[in-house]
Amino acid sequence: MQLFDTLRGHKATLEIPKDRPLTLYVCGVTPYDTTHIGHAHTFLIFDILIRYIRSQGGQVTYCQNVTDVDDPLFERANRDSIAWDVLAKREVDQYLKDCKAMNFLTPDFFPKVSEEISGMIPIIEGLLKNGKAYVANGNVFFDVSSEPSYGEMARLGGYEELLKTANERGNNPNDPNKTDPLDFVLWRTSNPGEPTWPSPWGPGRPGWHIECTAMSTRYLGDQLDIHGGGRDLVFPHHPSEIVQTEGYTGKRPFTRFWVHGGLTWLDGAKMSKSLGNLVFVRDAVLQQSPDSIRWYLASFPYREDFNYIRADAKAAEGEIAALVTALSAPAGSGPVLNVNDDVAAFYAALDDDLAMHIALSHLKQIITRINASSGTHSISAAQQQLRACAGVIGFKAAE
Ligand SMILES: [Zn+2]
Predict the structure, then answer these.
(1) Taking 80 as the threshold, does the pLDDT of residue 181 lie above it?
(2) Domain ranges of the chain
(3) Which of 109, 247, 257, 359 is the 20 to 30 Å CA partner of 150?
């Protein structure tokens, strides 16, 4: 299939091997708040990608992590006077409920950072040994000057633009322990009240980026086929993973395809915790069927930002009703309804950079034609094809 790779900046051919599974790592949630529609959109992209690869005879080994050691989680736990691990467990439980409701495929590996710390220490030691990092007062930083290509995925321009974006996303440029304000944390001393783990540099906790290097390489190997996440991870998270992982393993590229989903907006503003305009999955699935949410989210080009409009999301219920009708519509005794061209177009759309919005338009065409031919034509073969296509999009109605 053709798949857009953010690092290369264009589509390239992803061969679907028959003799080994493709490896997929998706950066998962930081469990301090329940899953919102933006998360659901990101995870839906990879859910449909896996289902499509399977439909083509391939297999995928899928790892999605839980970032339960990170600043936002500790800040929320502190604000709400709750233990960080209790908060994390509660929110992971809710997340798993949301994923089940949305009919997301279960990852083969679902590691939690808090249980993976020991795997990070040897990687940091390796980066120090390879001259990619330095120790300062119980902290370890990655030396970005050791990797001139750092951040090229983001296409932001020069150093100043990278630093500005990093600062907007949690980098502390004024840390006196740093040689360069853009250097990022591999290991750091903990603040009071935060958990600590032992390390060769003193008690502390890992930085955010090193967590994903440790978990992806542990479960999927030193080099991945596909690494995904929301577009807000295009800098600094994913370029940091690249320089850490390649700096440690010496194998390039770390990942063959970097796949990023667009961000979700609500009424003209980016849906974000800081703006407080989140639509939570657990609320949305009470107001409409998960299949209709899935239809709505799949109706946008996956790489582009989209504006979530509640009325439009609810209107997708009508598409699901038509799908359900078509799947069980009574056949007639007339000529066989031939939907082969629509089915071929459906798969061709997914094959061309997972154009799920185009695939959905062909699915709709198949549904419309079956419903129009019900009672007159022989439609059972078309219904079987419809069920298979709807299964690739992951609708429960097709199961
Ligand atoms: Zn990550």
Answers:
(1) yes
(2) 16-270, 316-394
(3) 109
What mean pLDDT is predicted for residues 204-213?
97
pLDDT score of 291:
98
- Secondary structure element (H or E) that encloses residue 12, with its range: strand 10-13
What's the whole-model pTM score? Answer: 0.96
Q: Write down the architecture of domain 16-270 according to CATH.
A: 3-Layer(aba) Sandwich (3.40)
Mean per-residue pLDDT of the chain: 96
**Alpha carbon of 209 to ligand 1 centroid (Å):** 6
| 278 Cα: distance to centroid of ligand 1 (angstroms) | 21
What is the DSSP annotation of 62-94? Answer: EEE-B--SSHHHHHHHHHTT--HHHHHHHHHHH
Q: What is the mean pLDDT of residues 331-355?
A: 97
CA angle in degrees (0–180, nearest 5) for 363-368-373 = 125
Does the structure show a pLDDT above 90 at 277?
no
Quote the ligand 1 centre to 32 CA distance (angstroms).
16
- The alpha carbon of 102 is separated from its chain's Cα centroid by a whole number of angstroms, namely 14
Cα 279 to middle of ligand 1, angstroms: 23
Sequence letter at residue 158:
G
Q: What are phi and psi of 114, to 5 degrees?
A: -60, -20
The pLDDT of residue 268 is 77
Name the CATH topology of 316-394.
Answer: Four Helix Bundle (Hemerythrin (Met), subunit A) (1.20.120)
Q: Would the CATH topology of 16-270 be identical to that of 316-394?
A: no
Distance 1 CA to ligand 1 centre (A): 25
Using the mean position of ligand 1's atoms as its centre, give its distance from the Cα of residue 211 in Å: 7
- The model's pLDDT over 224-234, given as tens digits with 9 standing for 90+, comes to 999 999 999 99
Q: Hey, which residues does 229 pair with through a beta bridge?
A: 260
Identify the pLDDT of residue 44: 98
Give me ligand 1 centre to Cα 65, in Å: 8
Residue 89 has pLDDT above 80, yes or no: yes
The encoded tokens of residue 245 equal: 């992982």
Distance 394 CA to ligand 1 centre (A): 25
Distance 161 CA to ligand 1 centre (A): 22
Write down the H helix ranges in 221-309. Answer: 237-249, 281-287, 290-298
Is residue 249 pLDDT above 80, yes or no?
yes
Residue 193 pLDDT: 85
